[in-house]
Amino acid sequence: MSSWVDYYRILNVAPDNSIEVIRKAYQRLLLRHHPDKAALVNGLQADSSAAAATASPAPGATALEPDTMMMMTGVTRAPADPSTSDTSVFLLIQEAWETLRDAQLRAVYDAQRSNAYLSLVAAVNEDLVLEDWDFDDGEGCYIYPCRCSGEFVATPRNFAGRVELFGCTNCSLAVRMVYPSTESTVEDDGAA
């Protein structure tokens, strides 16, 4: 993801915040940056209490240091400057909300975000295919042992979302899931 944007950082919320906290943060930013409200908001910016409220996280949100978030998530593009009220800021806020409010889109985004983080900090131990994993019926997930005695855990939903990297439960190693290419499968079927 060459232009990765951290939607949680844009909305100034933590990934474990509830949808209600995220919605409140979105609404607060929407009022501040909506192009139709720009004149009203710019007038309020002179008020120091309004400026202070802009910098604080949403009620109930866990504030994270920007540098820490950048390192943790692999963000290559900084979030919009909260003091700017142009259309691009509004569109980023809207894009963040549209993704995080939908449970399925949020799950896919979170998996991609996790992959971005793992690709920065984890050493890939080996490449795996689905047949390498053991399915645990009791837990409803796939397990692969790590050389440290820990394990790599994946759910069927991870595989359906084509998550590529999985971190060990005990150490800093990761494994990469190699998915069959749909193009090569079609070509192989045609050659047979």
Automatic annotation (TrEMBL):
The record, for InterPro entries, names:
DnaJ_domain (IPR001623), DPH_MB_dom (IPR007872), DPH_MB_sf (IPR036671), J_dom_sf (IPR036869)
Q: Which Gene Ontology MF annotations are present?
A: ATPase activator activity; ferrous iron binding
- Return the PROSITE patterns for the record: DNAJ_2, DPH_MB
The chain positions of domain DPH-type MB read: 124-180
Keyword Kinase, does the record have it? no
User: Which PANTHER family does the entry link to?
Assistant: DNAJ HOMOLOG SUBFAMILY C MEMBER 24
What is this protein called in UniProt? Answer: Diphthamide biosynthesis protein 4
Q: Which organism is it from?
A: Capsaspora owczarzaki (strain ATCC 30864)
